[in-house]
Design a protein that fits this description.
With 360 residues, this protein is of the alpha/beta class. Helix content is 35%, strand content 14%. The chain has two domains: 18-37 and 260-347, Alpha-Beta Complex (Aspartate Aminotransferase, domain 1), CATH 3.90.1150.10; 58-257, Aspartate Aminotransferase, domain 2 (3-Layer(aba) Sandwich), CATH 3.40.640.10. The chain has helices at 7-10, 40-47, 63-73, 85-97, 113-121, 163-172, 193-196, 226-236, 246-257, 259-282, 304-313, 337-347; strands at 27-29, 80-83, 104-107, 125-128, 148-151, 178-181, 202-207, 220-223, 285-287, 294-299, 316-320, 330-333. A five-stranded mixed sheet has the order 1-11-12-10-9, covered by helices on one side. Strands 2-8-7-6-5 form a five-stranded mixed sheet, with helices on both faces. Strands 3-4 form a two-stranded parallel ribbon. Strand 6, helix 7 (193-196) and strand 7 form a beta-alpha-beta unit. It binds 4'-deoxy-4'-aminopyridoxal-5'-phosphate.
Length: 360
């Protein structure tokens, strides 16, 4: 606290990201990063970059990247917005569309950055409960609102809903913006990008941080009706003209264009996820049905906080949220097959874990 802070700054509760450890030898399963490197084509762009070019500013409109995304998603450039990670795209989205008379609606358990932006931009919000098994029911969102946001698949619960449910919501809710945060969509859910062509109030936000292995480059994007995109551009151009640097723009272009690599790595992660679900089940865990690159798992007898601490002593990081309602769950990112084998063999060393016989 400082006397120089404005009242608004004093009231903020900033987001706390997962730990990025400085020590070596850590197995990081706590921030849903991709365990595989980015596409070799993206790496080549970076390795061959002519640093003399850096004396110039990067393209403020990121035209090359917007065109690559427009091509990939079969939309037009005017339907694409890009930003410094999807966190920045989300921040601009909250500023552009959610400062309304009615509250923004969002699930009780979802990406914990959303309430932080509400705080920053003074947006009233209402949390709607999930079902008993953390299902998202969009019927509950039939009420006055200044906007609706949810992640599909949701985080940290890993569950996805069907596109038909989102379309039914878009048909009912025509007066405010519906934002679908698809940070994890490539690991098994259906994207709502096609709905953005039919409904002018549906905005889809995605990231290069997960399925494209470029978390460190900070590239995110939104797809929607040109008027929504123009609104985002107004906020962006009132904040930072050059949010993406040249390396970010050009490596992201290469990553979007390398679809074969993207498909191969996402497939491997999905296979490893299914292997891990089964092994964890044998050790007494129950995991929610995941369409993401992480699992949301609880143990039948051992408390999640205890298991998180135990794994920490063995140099394996997983994410734990002490929030009531989810405080007996671990969010475990899917690493390489070897990393997940290490996780399982380490859990087997916990004194209270016993291996249960499997059905088959
Ligand atoms: N949305 C969700 C649901 C996330 O989990 C994350 C990652 N923490 C983000 C958005 C932001 O990702 P990035 O800023 O790296 O694009």
């Amino acid at each position: 606290m400082s006397k120089y802070w404005s009242d608004a700054i004093q009231r903020l509760t900033p987001y706390v990201p997962g730990e990025q450890p400085k020590e070596s030898g850590i197995t990081k399963l706590n921030t849903n990063e991709n365990p595989y490197p980015p596409s070799p084509k993206a790496a080549a762009v970076i390795n061959n970059f002519d640093t003399a070019r850096l004396r110039l500013y990067s393209d403020p409109d990121c035209t090359q990247l917007k065109d690559a995304l427009a091509n990939h998603f079969e939309v037009e450039r005017k339907n694409v917005f890009v930003g410094n990670g999807s966190d920045e795209v989300l921040a601009h989205t909250f500023a552009a569309f959610f400062q309304q008379e009615q509250p923004l609606l969002m699930p009780e358990f979802t990406y914990s950055f959303y309430p932080v932006y509400c705080n920053l931009f003074d947006i009233e919000f209402k949390l709607l409960p999930l079902g008993d098994n953390f299902e998202l029911n969009l019927e509950d969102y039939n009420q006055p609102n200044g906007g609706i946001i949810f992640a599909n698949p949701n985080a940290p619960t890993s569950r996805a809903i069907e596109l038909g449910e989102i379309e039914a919501l878009a048909q009912r809710n025509t007066e405010t913006v519906i934002v679908v945060d698809e940070a994890y969509v490539d690991f098994g859910a259906s994207s709502a990008v096609e709905l953005t062509q039919k409904y002018d109030n549906v905005l889809v936000i995605q990231t290069f941080s997960k399925s494209r292995s470029l978390a460190g480059m900070r590239v995110g994007f939104a797809i929607g009706h040109e008027d929504l995109i123009a609104g985002l551009e107004r906020v962006k151009n009132s904040f930072n003209s050059y949010p993406l640097d040249m390396l970010a723009i050009e490596s992201a272009v290469a990553a979007v264009e390398d679809n074969d690599y993207f498909e191969a790595t996402t497939k491997k992660i999905i296979e490893t996820r299914e292997w891990t679900v089964n092994r964890l089940e044998e050790l007494g865990f129950i995991s929610l049905p995941s369409k993401t690159n992480f699992l949301f798992s609880t143990h039948r007898y051992i408390e999640a906080a205890e298991l998180m601490g135990f794994l920490r002593t063995k140099k394996i990081l997983v994410r734990y949220f002490s929030k009531p309602g989810i405080d007996n769950y671990l969010r475990i990112s899917i690493g390489t097959q070897e990393e997940m084998e290490l996780l399982i063999s380490t859990l087997e060393q916990h004194p209270d874990i016993c291996k249960m016989p499997t059905e088959s």
